[in-house]
TrEMBL record:
Domain Helicase C-terminal: 335-487
UniProt GO MF annotations: helicase activity
Record has Nucleotide-binding as a keyword: yes
Annotated spans, Disordered: 24-48
Keyword Nucleotide-binding found: yes
Originating organism: Streptomyces cavernicola
Coiled coil: none
Protein name: DEAD/DEAH box helicase
Entry-linked InterPro entries: DEAD/DEAH_box_helicase_dom, Helicase_ATP-bd, Helicase_C-like, Helicase_put_actinobac, HRQ1_WHD, MZB, P-loop_NTPase
One protein family per Pfam: DEAD
Length: 817
């Protein structure tokens, strides 16, 4: 029997607006816009005072396992390079910024020299101005060109919200420059009647990689004058381009560079990230170009108080009688309520759409008991909303009308939310990079800020709140992406051939895997070789062969059965687990039950309801080894990396009581299986190793299963993934290895680089896994160590002590680093 755990299917407009922290005696240039909602107003309580109020009463103070204090920091000014147009400098000064920070001036210098550059400085450090100053200067130069369109620039953001907010910021900054700068958003929400104007007249186009892939590059003849004049390509929040998504974006950028060369331009790439390890290396892999690095943050920073918060144990018992902690959802809703009552402007970041909706509903209910006027000042924000709903929420948050927001990462990289006092993070977001990105949303005008990480009942969260050095004394993770993944590269070669026939000169641009893939695409009758070039042979659009976010398939529309109203969408990969028949679906504070999931029509019919429970899908998995790429002896055991095929089927769902998480029952489902070819790391043990670890056949399955769960939970410490990006299977006797085996695999076709990272850090990864299990205070295993919320076998069997002994024996023979 196999046991499995499956994957689930302006932001700083001009800078920290250079405000002097109150502890400084040296005056700094005023650097905030007077009309911004964060400017002026009553003096705010310090983050320490806010935290003290949150922990007053009851046993709340005991829930804080660690407080980290990051002191304020003064800024270091510089002067703009003399090649920046005086009109641009004047416009910046009119925005309240007298002098740039040193890193802004340095980045601008690289851009003016024609060198691609990545600005990797802290949240709210003014990265936007670092690339806007040279970009606006180039556009101003271009507006004076005697013939032609003049210079153009392209801005890429990972979310529509970020692009829209940046457009507002650019219009505000560039207003004194008149018609020389013509910014416009071009994405799926842009009305058809506006799109032609953008193509013809805009010289600063803000979009996202999806629109570049599906809309702009396939229609490049209509964009020829824009591409011919393209001077700069800005890639904001570049650390988000990781895994499968990052690999796709890397190939989209190569297609862009190829078309620019066709039209005679060679744009400079300007990248920005608040959280990146080895930023020049990561940026180089993303763009395929050498990239200069600017990472010395010269901006000022207000005081940050960061608290690690562990919810208390309850009297409830979960699966197999394991002790259950109060949920991070309930705890976060309480904190958001209390912060709103205090008048503290806050965002609670939640990992799931459902969680964001649930937290806002609970907070609104509790606020109604205190002060009904506060109910409308808390809302939810997540992906899947319709465009007009997103825009309304962004305006309300920007204006200060909303005091509290429960948001998914759709807002992590979203609008300018300067003026926030506190951020509550409901569960570790999967990477240190995302943790600091979210924490940095508060205190963005230089004032002090509070960040609280609320731990989920999960091995990694529990480990982190009791090992704060893993968060505060470690650098952010390296960005993992693999542009040469054949599952990623193949459809982009087809898209490139449809844009312009592929020649031998293009092989180097798209990477070393290209040459061996082209004959395969020709054999599949997707490409045809004619004379010296490969041509796209089909009538359909080649760009439609792939979804660059790795979601795959047509999004499922969520429709209210009684009215036919479209509520939103769910990506195809998540449909089996999120909108199966009987699932609870939340949308803008309203609760629905899924009446029917029609996979052929990609529609989920829902009806409004108010069940006292949430739902969680359960699934089963089988795995087979296709090819072993690398195999390393670990004593008698083996550590391996290679290709696997995973077959998964959602078979049932649990109903859990709201707030407590108590299991109320399980219902069967009849959904088709799905197959995934991907990459995996796996390890085996021998009979002698089992004997040495005192693992008998009765507990072997439980020991392997517990080790698998915990290792999945701990991998995000070593790779830029979270546990929903990866899956696992453990088997007491696997038919391909003929030994007890634990697999951990990437949850994306062709792999995403996470399993490869696990293979290369296996000693440290599995040692941390062993420590996390061994240090947990529970007797027989709980959600904080070896139980998994996604387990397809109902967390049965599990043997906590056996897992510790098994990993101890395995690690004895691990090769030295």
């Amino acid at each position: 029997m196999a046991f499995n755990h499956l994957p689930a299917g302006v932001h700083d407009a001009f800078g920290p607006l250079s405000v002097t922290p109150v502890t400084h005696s040296v005056p700094m240039a005023k650097n905030h816009r007077p009309d911004h909602p964060s400017a002026g107003g009553p003096e705010r309580p310090s983050p320490r005072v806010v935290l003290d109020r949150l922990t007053a009463g009851g046993n709340r103070a005991a829930r804080i396992t660690h407080r980290e204090h990051l002191p304020p920091r003064e800024g270091r000014h510089a002067v703009w390079p003399d090649r920046i147009r005086s009109e641009v400098i004047s416009a910046v000064q009119q925005a309240g910024i007298e002098h740039p920070w040193a890193h802004q001036a340095e980045a601008a210098e690289h851009a003016l020299d024609g060198q691609s550059v990545v600005v990797a400085t802290g949240t709210a450090s003014g990265k936007s101005l670092a690339y806007l100053a040279p970009t606006l200067s180039a556009l101003l130069d271009g507006s004076e060109a005697p013939n032609g369109r003049g210079a153009t620039a392209l801005y890429l953001a990972p979310t529509k919200a970020l692009a829209a907010d940046q457009c507002r910021a650019v219009k505000e900054l560039a207003a004194p420059l008149g018609n020389a700068v013509r910014p416009a958003v071009y994405d799926g929400d842009t009305p058809v009647e506006e799109r032609e104007w953008v193509r013809q007249y805009a010289n600063y186009v803000l979009t996202n990689p999806d629109m570049l892939h599906r809309g702009m590059l396939p229609s490049h003849p209509r964009w020829s004058s824009f591409l011919r004049a393209l001077r700069y390509v800005v890639i904001d929040e570049c650390h988000t381009y990781r895994g499968v998504f990052g690999s796709h974006v890397a190939q989209v950028l190569r297609r862009l560079r190829r078309l620019c060369a066709r039209y005679g331009s060679d744009p400079v790439f300007l990248l920005a990230s608040a959280t990146a390890a080895d930023p020049s290396i990561a940026a180089g892999r993303l763009t395929g170009l050498p990239v200069q690095e600017v990472a010395d943050d010269a901006s000022p920073r207000g005081e940050l108080v960061f608290a690690l918060w562990e919810p208390p144990l309850t009297e409830l018992r979960g699966e197999k009688g394991a002790p259950v902690r109060r949920t991070a959802t309930a705890e976060t809703a309480d904190l958001l309520t209390d912060l709103t009552v205090q008048g503290v402007r806050s965002v609670a970041f939640v990992r799931s759409r459902r969680g964001a909706e649930l937290i806002s509903v609970i907070a609104q209910e509790r606020l109604a008991e205190v002060d009904r006027s506060l109910v409308g000042r808390v809302a939810a924000y997540r992906g899947g909303y319709l465009p007009h709903e997103r825009r309304a929420l962004e305006r309300a948050l920007h204006s200060g009308e909303l005091l509290g927001l429960a948001a998914t990462t759709a807002l992590e990289l979203g609008v300018d939310i300067s003026g926030l006092d506190a951020v509550v993070i409901a569960g570790y977001p999967g990477t240190r990079a995302s943790l600091w990105q979210q924490a940095g949303r508060a205190g963005r005008s230089g004032q002090g800020a509070l960040a609280v990480l609320v731990a989920r009942d999960d091995p990694l969260d529990t480990y982190l709140v009791h090992h704060p050095e893993a968060l505060f004394q470690q650098p952010v993770e390296s960005t993992v992406l693999d542009p040469d993944n054949p599952y990623v590269l193949a459809p982009h070669l087809c898209a490139a051939a449809a844009e312009l026939p592929l020649t031998d000169d293009d092989l180097k641009l798209f990477g070393p895997t290209t040459e061996e893939l082209l004959p395969q695409l020709e054999a599949a009758k997707l490409l045809r070789r004619r004379t010296r070039a490969w041509h796209w042979t089909r009538r359909e659009r080649a760009a439609d062969l792939t979804d660059i976010r790795g979601e795959g398939g047509t999004p499922v529309q969520v429709v209210e059965a009684g009215t036919g109203t479209l509520l939103g969408t769910v990506d195809a990969a998540s449909a089996h687990t999120a909108v199966h028949a009987g699932a609870v679906h939340l949308h803008q504070g309203r609760t629905y039950l899924v009446r029917e999931l029609d996979l052929e029509e990609s529609v989920a019919l829902v009806e409004q309801a108010n069940p006292p429970y949430s739902t969680t899908a359960r699934d089963t998995t089988a795995i087979s080894v296709l090819e072993t790429d690398v195999e390393i002896p670990w004593g008698e055991g083996r550590l391996c990396y290679g290709s696997v095929e995973v077959t998964n089927q959602v078979v049932s769902f649990l109903r859990r009581r709201l707030i407590t998480g108590e299991v109320l029952g399980e219902s069967k489902l009849d959904l088709p299986p799905r197959t995934l070819r991907t990459r995996a790391v796996w390890w085996t043990v021998t009979e002698d190793q089992l004997d040495a670890a005192r693992i008998n056949p009765e507990i072997l399955g439980g020991a392997l299963h517990a080790a698998e769960h915990a290792s999945i939970g701990m991998l995000p410490l070593f790779a830029t993934c979270d546990r929903w990006d990866i899956g696992g299977v453990s088997v007491p006797l696997h038919p391909d290895t003929l030994l007890p085996t634990v697999f951990v695999y990437d949850g994306h076709p062709g792999g995403a680089g996470f399993a490869e990272r696990a293979f290369h850090t296996a000693r440290e990864w599995l040692a941390a896994t062993r420590q996390a299990i061994a240090s947990c205070e529970c007797e027989a295993g709980c959600p904080s160590c070896v139980q998994s919320p996604k387990c397809g076998n109902g967390n049965d069997p599990l043997h906590k002590r056996g897992a510790v002994r098994l990993l101890t024996e395995l690690l004895k023979a691990a090769p030295a680093p």
